[in-house]
Each structure stands twice: as structure tokens, then as C-alpha cells.
TrEMBL record:
Keyword DNA-binding assigned: yes
Source domain of life: Bacteria
Protein name: TetR/AcrR family transcriptional regulator
Keyword DNA-binding: yes
Keyword field: DNA-binding, Repressor, Transcription, Transcription regulation
Length: 235
């Protein structure tokens, strides 16, 4: 084997080991922050939990603020990048909304402790981190509302206030972090599918929803359209 080949293998192994240690570091930090609070947890506590010395810990993170920033960024920016990629495809709004729910529920179901930590630590976040968190949170809401608005204009969703509907979808997905327990009676896949059905079902026009057809459904939709038009004219 060439020297270059050996070097690449060593580099890949080093990267993999670093990722494993960082993931374990995030898990221990999340648990300690949740148990003792951000202010009550020291880097030495985290190093002890990880089984390394404090100087060795500095190889991965320089301060608690940096560690908290990484956790916050992972919880907020990660989903935002995925949602923006989905919205940029300009696919069918119904399918896009389903996939958005899948992303959000998947994140909350697999990393519930990190999301709960973020919510509980909002008051302790440094000003710069709070601003970044608020910006990402507003961007997530805007992306979901944009998809719903596209669905309304395409005739796939009922005429609703897109922002209010987006808040409802987001709240439903975020709450998973509090009640879903891996290994319990429900699977992440089953929960994701059901919540996606609920999100879409709540917004679909009567003619598209199962069991809602015929003249009564048409009249109901016309009334909803007129109500929506009146709200737009009153703005």
C-alpha cells in the first residue's frame, strides 16, 4: 500500500474517532446541563463524565459557551437547512409539508434531550446566541408558512392564515420531544406518519379529504374562500 493510501486511511479513522467523541461529548453535556443547569455545570464535570482530562477536552471545545452554541446550532440550523432544501424544490405542497413534518418529528424523536435543553436554557443563552436562535426559529416558521401559502394558492389547501397554520404544525412537531419515548409503545416512523397525516388533513380542501365530496363540500369550500377573501380585503 502506498504512503498516500495509508495517510488517507489514518485521516479517515481520525475523523471518525473525533466525531464519535464529539457525539458522546454532546450527550454528556446535554445531560449535565439538564440536571445541573448551564451555570451549575463546569467543563471539569463534562470532562469527568467523558472520562478524559480537562486539557484533553480543550481539543474538542474551548468553553461552555462554545459548547452550548454548538448544541443550539445543531438543534436550530440543522433542521432549517433541510427545510429550506425541501422548499427550494417547489414540489407538490402536500408532499413537501409531509416531508417537513418528517424532518421535524425525526429530529425531536431522536434527540429530545437536546431540544428540551434548548427550551429550558433560553433565558441563559448569551445575547449573540439568543439572536441567532431567534433568527433561525423565525426562518423555520417562515419556511413552513411559505409551503402552506403555496398550497393555498395552488388550491391544495383550504384558505387559511398560513402563519397561524405553520405555528400549529410546528407546535405539534416540537411537542414530540416531551412525550415520545424511544423503545416505547410507539415507533418514530409510526408517529411521523400519523402526525404528517394530521398536518395535511387539517389543511386539505374538503374535496380532497376522504369522505368530503358532493355539493355540500363545494358550498362549504365556497364559504371558506369568501371568508378568506374578506379577511384579505380587511387588511
Amino acid at each position: 500500500m502506498s504512503a498516500n493510501g495509508s495517510g488517507r486511511k489514518r485521516g479517515a479513522a481520525s475523523t471518525t474517532r473525533r466525531e464519535l467523541v464529539e457525539n458522546e461529548l454532546y450527550e454528556h453535556a446535554t445531560r449535565l446541563f439538564a440536571e445541573r443547569g448551564f451555570a451549575g455545570t463546569s467543563l471539569q464535570d463534562i470532562a469527568d463524565a467523558l472520562g478524559i482530562t480537562r486539557p484533553a477536552l480543550y481539543h474538542y471545545v474551548k468553553s461552555k459557551d462554545e459548547l452550548l452554541a454548538k448544541l443550539v446550532t445543531e438543534v436550530t440550523s440543522g433542521p432549517l437547512d433541510e427545510l429550506n432544501a425541501l422548499a427550494a424544490q417547489h414540489a407538490d405542497p402536500v408532499d413537501t409539508l409531509r416531508r417537513i413534518v418528517a424532518v421535524l418529528v425525526g429530529r425531536r424523536a431522536t434527540q429530545p434531550e437536546r431540544f428540551r435543553l434548548l427550551i429550558r436554557s433560553e433565558a441563559e443563552l448569551p445575547a449573540e446566541l439568543t439572536e441567532a436562535y431567534d433568527t433561525d426559529r423565525r426562518a423555520v416558521l417562515k419556511t413552513i408558512a411559505g409551503v402552506i401559502d403555496d398550497g393555498v394558492h395552488a388550491g391544495r389547501f383550504r384558505p387559511v392564515d398560513a402563519r397561524v397554520a405553520a405555528l400549529g404544525v410546528l407546535g405539534m412537531c416540537n411537542w414530540v420531544a416531551w412525550w415520545f419515548h424511544p423503545g416505547g409503545r410507539d415507533t418514530a416512523e409510526g408517529v411521523t406518519e400519523q402526525l404528517a397525516d394530521m398536518a395535511v388533513g387539517a389543511l386539505q380542501r374538503p374535496g380532497e379529504a376522504p369522505g368530503e365530496t358532493g355539493p355540500a363540500a363545494v358550498i362549504k369550500q365556497l364559504r371558506a374562500d369568501l371568508d378568506h377573501l374578506e379577511r384579505l380585503l380587511d387588511r
